[in-house]
Amino acid sequence: MNTGKVNTEHFRIGDLELDTGTVRVHRGASVIELPKLSFDLLLCLARHAPNVVDTDTLMREVWGKVVVGEETVKQRVKLLRQALTDSSHDPKYIASIRGRGYRLIATVERQPAPGLRAAKTGRRRRVLLIVAIALIVVLGGGLLNRLDWVANQTASSGIAQDRAIRRIAVLPFDNLSRKQEDEYLADGITEDITTALAQVDGLGVIARTSAMHFKHSGSRVEDIARKLGVGTVLEGSVQRFGDDLRITVQMIDARTEEHYWAQSFDISLSSLPDLQVGIARRVAKSLEATMSMSGIEALQRSSTENPDAYDAYLKGRAFYRRWTRQDNESALAFYQQAIALDPEFALAHAGIANTFALRTTMFGAAEDWLEKSISQAELALSINPDLPEAHKALGLASFHRGHYQESLNHYLKAVELNPGYDEALFNIAEIYQLQGRWDEAIRYQLRDSDRAFGAERLSIYLRDMQFDEEAGELWNRVSTEIPISFFTEASLSLKYLLEGDFEKARIHSQRMKVSYPGEALSWQRASEIEQAAGRWDVAEDHADKAVELTTHSPSYPKLMLAHILLRRGEEQAGLKLIDEFERATLELINSGHEAWFQRWNMAYAEVLRGNTGEALRWYERAVDAGRRRYEWDEQEPAFAPLRNEPRFQAALERQRQYRRQMHERVAVIIKTMVAE
Fold first, then answer.
1. Which pLDDT value is given to residue 123?
2. Is the CB of residue 259 less than 8 Å from the CB of residue 251?
3. Please, what's the b/e burial string for 279-310 (b: 16 or more CB within 10 A of its CB; e: otherwise)?
4. How many Å apart are CA 232 and CA 204, to the nearest integer?
């Protein structure tokens, strides 16, 4: 939504005044400071008043092409109400209409904007001036410099009205330093300029990962711009001389490949954060846009004036994103070095929080690291409350504990602050998938589909929704970057297992065992295939191996093994494993773990005990929590006693309905994506 100087609007909303010219909301003499999205949301509601505005309209008019869900709209309405001191229970301004959307209940009056007449007079004068200059030239005067001025003014006006030109990509900066290891610096500058540009109102900034896809590609600017759907490109280079840098930046009109401007800067490392904001300001001025002052202040609060601290932080961030245990240790060392040099460096504190969280969530370290992660994230937020990286770390901690909605809220906040934050987008999609909202998972994962891991995960989500052709095309695109993938092999082995093609399922299961022999799921999947095929002796061998490799509690492979023991008549041994499993599972559920699979596991355990009623109750809870894999449950050997139960059949039908509805929505998403 464009809230710039063009087509200025002025509304009176009860005792409020909204002015798009100043981008301010007043209550009497007081200014109510609203973030851009909150301002745009209020403006959208005012334009449609007194009508109800549905969430689809709000998403389209407020967020534009940025893909969000209903939860994001709900949270933004909540923030707007807080800023206006409004209440959802006793609303003064914004009312929620159940199942429909939102509307302004305060009286809304559209008024002439202050200074409108003066603005019109000014425009008439400018037109007369341009005509006069043109006449002078036609009648014989050269005055080329004046014509240049007129052309610049006209072009500037055109830029402001051209939406395409307000979509910009920051291409990966070239590293011209003698040392290849300075590549992290070029990448860091690229990312931080991208982040700074996100503070320019009305500017669509392409995500870092999308632009990084063209690193060293040698493609023409025009071709890159067309693929990214942008009208403006920023590119540059960095050359390092100790603590001094020479940075060259150029802003290019992608349609003509002509330069708006180009400039070299000789600066020290300590000046780099200020330069990045300065470049964003210059881009904003070129496109007649404005920068968010609160956004600039947030960037400055997050950064440091110590050049060595900033350099250490960039190194730490580069190591962190390699996603290995050893690189995580290196990242932590650099982040800690940055903090030692500047204890108030918020980004470095957030970096430490993320490395700590990853130790537990990815590398299986003790739960104590999560507490340390939370402390570091909260410390970072005490310095800068609007730090996306800190919110993302809190999201990781909540996710590991199974507090999915709390985790989702942290991730959504991170993406609100940085719409191109690929790591948070990836995690949001994962939570939606676990909550059974597979269409929302695909919607968000689409925003993180330029990097290989993001595209691979999207292919898996599409395969789950039976868009096999689209999933295959995506996987083919990235398979050269990921020659063998545990997640894709797990997805394909599951696909063929559910289709009853046990031979193909075994092929992919075998690849899991050979390439990832230390992963319990490799052997668990092999056991599941053999159970479905009726080869129980082989299934038991694989289940034993999975139990041996499982370190967490409760261990689902133990429950599988209990099923096999009970089938063989070893009731005492089987029930002992079930008792252990149920105690651990109930402890997690009672601690607030929201996952459907914990409830599904309880259904599995109870059906093995012969408690049909309890099994059905837990199974229904699993569906409520997000279970959508009805094909599995239709053929799961342990669920044979439930097959003819009406409640079980009703729960299966609910999942089919959810899947049909989601399939329809995803089909629309794909159709729209292809059309664009």
1. 44
2. yes
3. bbbbbbebbbbbbbeebeebbeebbbebbbbb
4. 10
Question: How, if at all, do strands 94-97 and 101-104 pair?
Answer: antiparallel
Question: Which amino acid, 541?
Answer: D
Of 3.40.50.300, 3.40.50.10610, 3.30.565.10, 3.20.70.20, which CATH number belongs to 164-291? 3.40.50.10610
Can you tell me the distance from the alpha carbon of 24 to that of 143, in angstroms, rounded to the nearest whole number?
Answer: 41
CB 392 within 8 A of CB 432: no
Q: Do residues 232 and 251 make contact, with C-beta atoms less than 8 angstroms apart?
A: yes
What is the rounded CA–CA span in Å between residue 107 and residue 503?
Answer: 68
Strand, coil or helix: what is 250? strand
Q: Which of 78-82, 294-298, 327-331 has the lowest mean pLDDT?
A: 294-298
Structure tokens at 602: 């309880």
Look-up of token digits 């036609």? 138
How would you classify residue 446: left for phi > 0, otherwise alpha for psi between -120 and 50, otherwise beta? alpha
Q: Are 252 and 259 in contact (CB under 8 A)?
A: yes
- What is d(CA 250, CA 236) in angstroms, rounded to the nearest whole number? 6
What pairs with residue 26 in β-bridges? 17, 31
Residue 458 DSSP code: H
State the CATH class of domain 10-111.
mainly alpha
* C-alpha span between 249 and 261 (Å, rounded): 8
**What count of other Cβ atoms lies within 10 Å of the Cβ of residue 115?**
15
Contacts 24+ apart (CB under 8 A), 338-344: 338/304, 338/309, 338/310, 338/312, 338/313, 339/309, 341/304, 341/306, 341/308, 341/309, 341/312, 342/304, 342/305, 342/306, 342/309, 344/304, 344/383
Q: Kindly state the tokens that stand for 179.
A: 């040392």
Model confidence at 657: pLDDT above 50:
yes
The two structure tokens encoding residue 202: 């009305």
Is 184 within 8 Å of 177 (Cβ atoms)?
Answer: no
- d(CA 585, CA 559) in angstroms, rounded, equals 11
Which amino acid appears at position 621 of this protein? R
- The residue written with tokens 């301010």 in the block is 24
Alpha helices (H) along 321-467: 325-341, 346-361, 368-383, 388-400, 404-417, 422-434, 438-445, 452-464
pLDDT for res 66: 59
- Domain ranges (residues) in the chain: 10-111, 116-161, 164-291, 319-562, 563-676
Distances (CA, A) of 514 to 196, 517, 518, 523: 45, 6, 9, 10
- Hey, which CATH number is domain 319-562, 3.40.50.150, 1.10.1040.10, 3.40.50.720, 1.25.40.10? 1.25.40.10
Would you call 270 exposed, middle or buried from its count of C-beta atoms within 10 A (0-12, 13-18, 19+)? Answer: middle
Report the pLDDT averaged over residues 345-369.
Answer: 90
pLDDT at 157 over 70: no
Residue count of the chain: 676
Across the chain, what does the average pLDDT equal?
A: 85
| Phi, psi dihedrals of residue 230, rounded to the nearest 5° | -120, 160
Stretch (H or E) spanning 624: helix 612-625
Question: What span, in angstroms and rounded, lies between the C-alpha atoms of 128 and 134?
Answer: 10
Tokens found for residue 151: 């052309």
- Tens of pLDDT, residues 494-536: 999 999 999 999 999 999 999 999 999 999 999 999 999 999 9
In the DSSP assignment, the letter for residue 113 is P
